[in-house]
Amino acid sequence: MVATANNEATKQSPARSLARSLARPAQYAAFPVALLVVWQVCAQLGFVRRNVLPAPTDVAIVWFDLITGATDAATRYSGTWLNHAAASIWRVFAGFAWGVALGILAGLLIGLSRIMERVLDPTIQVLRNVPVTAWVPLSLVFFGIGNAPAVFLIGLGAFFPAAVNTTHGVRQINTTLVKAARMMGANERELLVRVILPAALPSIMTGVRLSMGIAWVLVVVAEILAVRSGLGYLLNDAYLFYRNDVVIAAMLSIGLLGFISDRLVVLVRDYLLEWNRLETFSGQN
Amino acid sequence: MARISLRHVGKTFASRHGNVTALADINLDIADQEFITIVGASGCGKSTLLNLLAGFETATSGEVTFDDAAIDGPGPDRGVVFQQTALFPWLSVEDNIAFGLRLRANRHRGAPHVIVERMLARTGLAPFRLRRPAELSGGMRQRAAIASVLAINPSTLLMDEPFGALDALTRSVMQDFLLEIWEEERKTALLVTHDIDEAIYLADRTVLMTAHPGRVQEIIRVDLPRPRRYDMRSAPRFIALRDHVTRVIRDEAIRGAAEVAA
C-alpha cells in the first residue's frame, strides 16, 4: 500500500500535487470565506443601513483600531481591546479552574461511592437544572459588582459538565480492569491513580471541554451584568452607544478566544488520550 | 499437601426471582503444581468457582482454603487470566507487563525492567513491546495478559476461558504456549473452559460439572504422558477420554434442558 502511494506521488505532475496540497486549506476556508462574501454583498447592497449591519470590512477596520489604537475608528473604544480581552480571559480561566477542579472531585466521589452518590447526586441534579443565569441576582447580592460574581458564575457553570461526565466516566469503567488491578495487589490509591483516573479520562475530558464552552458563554453574561470590563462589557457598552461595528468585533473576539481555548483543551486531551484514538472511530477522509 | 482445598462449598446468589444456587457441595483438592481443568455446560457455575478461588466472591457455605488459609479477597499469589483480556488500553505491552510489578505490593519481586525483558522474550512479544493492546491480534493480546500475570510470579494461575474468544488455530497454538510455560514454571493451574478437547489436552485432572445447581459430576485423571504434544489429540486414549467426557456433559445438558422445559 505504502509503495503504491509513493509511486503515485512521484508520477504526479507538479500542478496536480500543488492542487492536492491546497485541497485541505481550501476545505477549511471555503465556508467562512463564502459567509464573509455574502455578508459583504448584503451590507453593500444597502438593504439595511450600514450602521445597523456594518460590512465585514467596516468591522475589520474598527477591530484593528480596537486592538492597536492607531486610527481612532473605534473612537472611545480605541486601543482598549487588550485590556478587555485580558480581563475576560482571566475570569474564564479562574472560573473554569475552580469549577472543573471541584466538578472532577465531586464526579469521582459520586462515581466511586454509592454513599456519596446518595448524599451529593440529587442536589447536583436539581441545581444542574437551574440555569446559571438564574444565579445572577443572588451572586450580585452576595459578591457585589466586580470579578467575584463573574468568577463564581463561570465556575458554577463549569462545575456541572465536569461533575456529570466524570461520574459517567467512572461508572463505565470495565470491571475486568478493576478486578485485574486488585488481583495484582493494587491498593486503593494505586487503583484510583493507575486505573480509574486514566480509564475515566476520555469522559472527564469531554466534560472539561463542555465546561470551557460554558465558561465563555457565562463570562459574557457576567460582564454584561456584573463588571465594567471585559469583552462582554465592551459588547454591551457599544450596543448602548449604537456601535454595531464594535459589537460585532467584540462578538468575533469572544468567538475566536473561545475557539482558541477549546483548541487548547483538545490539544491537552489528544496528548493525554493518544491511546484512545486507536479504539474509537475517527471519521473518514 | 493440597494447595487449594474446597470442602462442601456452596454459593447462592440473591436475584430478583429469588435465590439461585450456583454451586452446591463442591469438594475438591488441588495439589501444588497440578494442572486442573473444569469443564461443563454454560451455567454450571464453573466461573463462579474460579471467582471464589480468586477472591472476587465469597462462598455462602463450606470452606475454601488456599495454602491452608481461608481466602480473603484477591491477591497476587493467585494470578487470574480473564476471558475478556485485562490489558490497560492506555499502556503499551511492556507497561502492561510491568503494571503489577510497579505496585507497592510487588516491590520485593525484583526490578520491573529485568522481569519485563524476560517476559517479552518468553512470550515472543519483544517486537511488539511498544504497541498498545488495540494494535495487537487476539492471540497476542492474551499472550500479553498471561505475561503480565506471570510477571508478578503467582504460585497459582486461575484462568477463566482464556482462549474462548480466539479462533480454533490460534487457540491450539495458545494451548501449547500455556503448557510450555507451565512445564517450565510448574505453577498450580486451574483453567475453566467449555471446550472438551482443551480440558483434556491441558489437564492432569479434569473436573466435569453439572448445572442447576453446579455440582462436581466426575473427576477424571488424564493419564496422557507429559509433555503433551499436539498429535496426542488423535491418540486412542485421548479419543476415549473425549468420548467419555462428551457423553457425560451432553447427557447433563440434555437433562438440564428437559428440566427447564418441564
Report on the structure:
The complex is a heterodimer of chains A (285) and B (262). With 285 residues, chain A is mainly alpha-helical. Chain A contains twelve helices and no strands. Chain B has helices at 46-54, 93-98, 112-123, 138-151, 168-185, 196-202, 236-261; strands spanning 2-15, 18-31, 35-40, 61-66, 69-70, 78-81, 156-160, 188-193, 205-210, 215-221. In chain B, the strands form two sheets. A six-stranded mixed sheet of chain B has the order 6-7-8-3-9-10, with helices on both faces. Chain B has a four-stranded antiparallel sheet with strand order 2-1-4-5, with helices on one face. In chain B, strand 7 (156-160), helix 5 (168-185) and strand 8 form a beta-alpha-beta unit. Chain B is globular. The mean pLDDT of chain B is 92. The chains are: A mainly alpha (285), B alpha/beta (262).
Write the layout of secondary structure elements.
The complex is a heterodimer of chains A (285) and B (262).
Chain A: H1 2-11, H2 14-45, H3 56-68, H4 81-112, H5 114-128, H6 136-143, H7 147-171, H8 175-183, H9 188-225, H10 231-240, H11 244-272, H12 276-279
Helix pairs in contact in A: 3-11, 4-5, 4-7, 4-9, 4-10, 6-7, 7-9, 9-10, 9-11, 10-11
Chain B: E1 2-15, E2 18-31, E3 35-40, H1 46-54, E4 61-66, E5 69-70, E6 78-81, H2 93-98, H3 112-123, H4 138-151, E7 156-160, H5 168-185, E8 188-193, H6 196-202, E9 205-210, E10 215-221, H7 236-261
